Amino acid sequence: MFRDKILQTIRKYNLLSSLDRVLVGVSGGPDSVALLYLLYDLKVKLGIKIIVAHLNHGLRGKASDLDEEFVKNISSSLGLDCVSRKIRWTSTKSKPSEEALRKLRYDFLFSVAKKYKIDKIALAHTLDDQAETVLMRFIRGTGLYGLISILPKRREGAFDIIRPMIETSRSQIEDYLKKIKVRPRIDKTNFSKIFLRNKLRHGLLKDLSRMNPNIKPTLARFAQQAAADYDYLYQQAKHYVKGNGDSVKLDLLKLGNLHLALQRMAIRVALERIAQDLRSFTYKHWEETQDLINKRPNGSIVHLTKDICAKKDKYNIVIYKK
Length: 322
Prior knowledge:
With 322 residues, this protein is α/β, with parallel strands linked by helices. 51% of the residues lie in helices and 16% in strands. A six-stranded mixed sheet has the order 3-2-1-4-6-5, with helices on both faces. Strands 7-8-11-10-9 form a five-stranded antiparallel sheet. The protein contains twelve helices and eleven strands. The mean pLDDT is 87. Helix 2 packs across helix 7 and helix 5 (127-140) packs across helix 9 (215-237). It is elongated. Strand 1 (21-25), helix 2 and strand 2 form a beta-alpha-beta unit.
């Protein structure tokens, strides 16, 4: 039973506990609507309180407003509070990137969660999303961290981001919605080939499915294995990084004796403590830092970004903010 499968995922990853206050991000599309109905169905059994959040991007005119109205209506029919916000764009000359829209969504969810003292934010990512994300990051270029893809549970500041449907396929969700006789909103931009994710969803993934009908769960398992490998390396690497704030140190002798994989992870841990967000770092930055460790003389400095540097002295690699 579909409901039991979701409950199994929740328990497997310890996503929810009794008395949790859960903010459910609902766009109005099939995945998020299914998530809302599933959690509503389970709320007594799990002992949780649900609040709905909807961000109206305002990029599709009247269709965006109808999405918002739809989410408010289904929330009301379930007796749930719904918090919504509409973005007012000052310019519509060019549409924002996927990354920009993602940031807007998360900023909105975090602000609502903080205001209403929410414990956890539930998002409707699926097994299909997992497979698509692995492929997308691989094509764009990534390391082990990027291949982790979408985790069932992730701590983000003061909140836990949870994904109860991460082991569920999109086809299972569609069958569930038909069974409970709920018609979600359909965003036509999901079929546009402008975005890379849509190209993969409606093109490459279909081609790969012909070669391997289980390609989606295969990619999802790969992401889970990468996550376990990454976590082990990350926990080990933390022992070689000293300091926080504006400056961290890596012992040069210890660093030089590490396996390359662990050495790179130690550098990553150090950079995280300084920069928090590493999306501006490229493979070239990693190469330059390793070259600093292994080849360059004491006193050498590598400028990684406009405000972050790495310096080599007699005993340490020091990564610091200017």
